[in-house]
Amino acid sequence: MNPHHTGDLDWDAMGARLEREAELHTPALDQSAAWLRELLGGEGAVAGVGRVLDVGSGPGVAACRLARAFPFADVVAVDGSAGLLERAAQRAAAHHLGTRLSTHHTDLPAGFATLPATDVIWTSQAIHHLGDQAAALKALAAALRPGGLLAVAERGLPPRFLPRDIGLGRPGLQARLDAAAEDRFTVMRGQLPGATATVEDWPALLARAGLIPTGTRTFLTDLPAPLDLPAREHLHIHLTRLRDQLGEHLDTADRTTLECLIDGDARTGILWRPDAFYLAATTVHTARACPRF
Predict the structure, then answer these.
(1) Model-wide pTM > 0.90
(2) In terms of domains, do 146 and 257 share one?
(3) Rounded to whole angstroms, how far apart are CA atoms 214 and 284?
(4) Residues of the domain holding 261
(5) Per-residue pLDDT reduced to its tens digit, 87-129
(6) pLDDT tens readout for residues 23-48
(7) Based on the domain organization, do 125 and 205 belong to the same domain?
């Protein structure tokens, strides 16, 4: 996704990485979509879903899965990055979705007022990039038709991909990386325009947006060792970014360990380790607009 004021992030340049990461989570995406279908009332109700929005769609991986889950709906990928939306359009064409998937280029959250009325809104890891998260949810709720469903995938649990003791440096590297990443995330949130301190009780936030909470579920992405090459390449990029983003917050020993892990020629590197796995949890919070009787 690409809200227009997220600091130094170049979303267009991150397209390939975002697409690869989302593809790893395809099973969790499909399970999430199946749950949304159940919440709406099953097959009969799904036939009545005419439009689905993926807000902060990025390269369109989720949007394409949603198009499969809601076969009678027009799906709109909404993002502020023209480059990512071009990837979404190309992906839709490759998946033979024809005109069922379109793109909508707009700044987030300023463009929320331009969203068309819709039956389902999916937004994943996008709201936390907006300064006033509560206001963003209210704006999305306003785009729902009566009885419509809003699904917000936020935070969950950070991925795990290595044992506690990897034979390099001090054990517990991932826990320290998580702590440094949380500190950086807090700084990022505080620097957003209009940043508002918010207790991230997502069901309560959805209720305050005027919606009726309909449940929260968590879906796992569980790829055991040994990992295939696409997952390893994603982790190599992920660790390289952590080195670049968090290096100054780590001690010398942990920085050295990271360098060893991203060494593409070393047997101890993430591209070659037999003990590398990938386990992540995606948490989805849902709520519906009041139906019209």
Answers:
(1) yes
(2) no
(3) 11
(4) 162-193+225-276
(5) 999 999 999 998 999 999 999 999 999 999 999 999 999 999 9
(6) 999 999 999 999 999 999 998 899 99
(7) yes
Based on the domain organization, do 46 and 178 belong to the same domain?
A: no
Q: Give me 66's structure tokens.
A: 């949603």
Q: What is the pLDDT of residues 139-180, one digit of tens each?
A: 999 999 999 999 999 988 999 999 999 999 999 999 999 999
Task: Say how many Å lie between the first and final Cα of the chain, rounded.
Answer: 35
**31 residue type, one letter:** Q
The 10 Å Cβ neighbour count of residue 195 is 14
139-162 burial, b at 16+ Cβ within 10 Å, e below that, comes to: bbbebbbebbbbbbbbebeebebb
